[in-house]
Amino acid sequence: MTRIILASTSPFRKMLLGNAGVRFETESADIDERAVEKAVGGSGISPEDMATILAEAKAKDVAARHPDALVIGADQTLSFNDEILHKPADMDAARRRLLALSGGTHELNSAVVIARGEEVLWRHVSIARLTMRDLSPEFVGRHLAEAGDEVLKSVGAYQLEGVGVQLFDRIEGDYFTIVGLPLLPLLAKLRQLDAIDG
Q1: Residues 6 or more apart from 193 whose CB is under 8 A from it?
Q2: Of 32, 68, 75, 90, which one is the catalytic site residue?
Q3: Residues 126-140, mean pLDDT to the nearest whole number
Q4: Does pTM top 0.85 for this prediction?
Q5: What is the pLDDT of residue 43?
Q6: Active-site residue 174, yes or no?
Q7: Domain 4-192 classified CATH 3.90.950.10?
Q8: Its family (predicted)?
């Protein structure tokens, strides 16, 4: 069977791929995401393209060390009011993030790339649109106290698979895209590459 490496140590991506029955290893990519963004950011790049560029950088970094393997790189950007946002640094930043997103619609752009050696075999990006309900500062404070530091692992400062679901009025897009790994297109491509049983 083909050796598959997930170029990520994200517990959520590992869980999704493992739950799908895929046998894989994990290895963290050694890239500076902010430096990659800075190198291409001045060109008016779209949030979807930025997610793809970061996913590709991760896949190629790990694939260079394991040229025999299929390496999966994934990344996600959050875009809101034409701006790409990053993970909040602390709980105060998380509070500001939720209040900024309150009452509006933001997009999660989840990209996945498969590389082997120096070659990129496949790229895909899925988009989910999430509309938050109007949140009061008092509710946000109570919500963050309940959710805890886990919110700092998410660019949106929420965990949709937990109490974060209470922040939303409407969600357009699939669960896998929201968590950060467009699983159905990825599995289809792995079957096409004869990397998993089809």
Answers
A1: 2, 70, 114, 121
A2: 75
A3: 98
A4: yes
A5: 67
A6: no
A7: yes
A8: Belongs to the Maf family. YceF subfamily.
